[in-house]
Amino acid sequence: MSLAHVLVEADGGSRGNPGPAGYGAVVLSADGARTVLAERKEALGRTTNNVAEYRGLIAGLQAAIELGAHEVDVRMDSKLVVEQMSGRWKIKHPDMIPLAAEAKELVAQLSRVGFTWIPRAQNSHADRLANQAMDAAAGIAPAATSAAVTPVAAAKPASPGWTGAVGTPTRLLLLRHGQTALSVDRRYSGRGNPELTAVGREQAAAAAKHVAGLGGITAVVSSPLGRARQTAAAAAQELGLDVTVHEGLTETDFGEWEGLTFREAAERDPELHRRWLGDTSVAPPGGESFDEVHQRVQAARDELVAAHPGATLLVVSHVTPIKTLLRLALDCGPSLLFRLHLDLASLSTAEFYPDGGSSVRLVNAPTS
Length: 368
Description:
The protein is α/β, with parallel strands linked by helices. It is built from twelve helices and eleven strands.
């Protein structure tokens, strides 16, 4: 299937305008089959419909670029966004100007982008994702089939019951670091050491207050990389704890792809990049394979569980180590690495029981 040309359908909403808001976006194949290639959704806290709709567009365009698309047809039921992005309506509201500018920067990275208004009934996939995000923003518990579940108080770990696991688990609260300059541009960010941006520092501060409110955390453990240590330090200060650094929690070494976008890496090493996406034993040039990451993260997990039996730890790390810890808890295959999305400063929870059982209680929850 060629990904050169894709469809992006996006939506956003606010219950109250302003009120609890969120967006949803889906990237589909343009070959008539409408195969789902990527999904994005995010709770935005309290904001307006228009802000949420623009954020949905931005997320959809970013996802299309990550997939290596060159031509994108955007379909939205927001007349305002479609007309403003098409250049037919002026952008006057101060909240819209920076969002439209961000969207236009993404458009400039593509060969062609078209915008089409569609009725809400034809935008049901993105609308569903947006409503799930709005539920999260409003504090409404998702359905049992959702990837994210309502957080459980950190001070009271309990057996998942029907799985048969017994005893008190070691609970790992998995916090992704805040924004860096490389994450803004969706560039491979492994062993490079960019600092948090101003937004990233705000995310770290908000996450610190969030995790402190959970209670029961007895230790803060961080990747050795600066962006994780900055995020961990904010939480540790809020919790009154020290930060312990564990080398096994560092991000994947992307080698010569460090700092490149998905498209740039694919154009630089097309055959190797294609194999890397389908085979976790393949490493980037001069870098580290996901199988190698799995081995060191598993060893780190074993050490943390052995050193902190029955405790609740805040583990501050990166996308691949966090996905790997969730994969270990779910006892599932490597496809999770490519299909699970983790936002900046998001929180997930994995539990590991003394009898070898495990569970996942939370995935990609917002902390602000």
